[in-house]
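Exercise: predict the fold of this chain.
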Amino acid sequence: MTLPNTQDTITEVDAVNNILPKRFRLWNKVKDGHAKQPPMAPIKAIMIAWIGGVIGIAVIGLVTDYTHYPFVLGSLGATCVLVFGFPESPFSQPRNIIGGHFLSSLMGLLFISVLGVTWWSTALALATAIAVMQLTKTVHPPAGSNPVIIMLTHATWPFLLTPTLVGATTLCVVAFIFHTIMSKKNYPTYWL
């Protein structure tokens, strides 16, 4: 693209960036990302996380098969990534896992009860879950999917107990036993 009264050729991205204020310029955001990718975890840590993930979800699946109650929740898979792969993270602590799952599911159930299932009630439930987790210092990113799961499945109030509370609590107990025996990591780093 050639600008009038000049021989300089610029791209369409540059043309748009010249119109926008500096903080909104796309190219600046792309070219300024100089952080290096973190190194790969040691193979031993990867294997320990793998074993923990197998055991964690297997226990919840076994309890589901034995009791015929749904204890498996999609977001618990992402919880396994954190609690077995990154047990030192604040997001991986029992307070955050149990509190985050409980409060996010509670927000989903409140919004579905009051507003029904719509795209905007789903968005409001999710956003409120984020805010409530931040206010209570129980942020657990996988729990953010609970309001969406609740809306998609048209869940009712028993969802708060099972799979939410029982599943999250079971996973914390499994993680505590696993890290005590297998990984020798100090888990949890805090309870409350």
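Check your answer against the key: The mean pLDDT is 89.
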